[in-house]
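Before relying on records like the one below, remember that each one covers exactly one chain. Contacts with other chains, cofactors or solvent are not represented anywhere in the record.
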Amino acid sequence: MNVLLRILLLYAMLASHAPLESAASPKVGTPAPNFSVQTLDGRTLNLTSLRGKVILLHFWATWCPPCREEFPLLEQFYMQHRQNGLEIISVSMEDPGDLDKVRTFARGYTFPVALVGAADVAGYGRIWRLPLSYVIDRDGVLRKTDWSGDEPINAHSLETYVLPWLKPALQAEIQPH
């Protein structure tokens, strides 16, 4: 199936899942909309259960080349900072029929992965471009929204948009006791 057809199918699928009133993306500085995902390994994660962690909520698909390119960098960043309270929640926008493909791709990564069909993310509006990420601070406040292909995830953007929210934990680690 060609890429344009996949994009059109994804758009149609997402349009049917998101009510009209949630079409707008949430705003920086406001409380993050609740989300709930069932990960590929069967865990249920949501905003409440992750309170106190810095969350990078990341939407992607296996057929999206920039999405695939970001995964190794996300894994490296996660491995460096998960002990400081970082949680990456990666939501594949593929349908349940592609579960095996998503599992195969995600096998090499340690952060949680879920399918959009096993997630409630309606408060984040229509996900119409990929990759797309949101940063949520330890208190559940949105700190970066609409982080997409125009400004890809790279070492600099992770340091700019995620690392500052991890710093209180990092500073506590280096304080003499």
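The longest helix spans residues 65-81.
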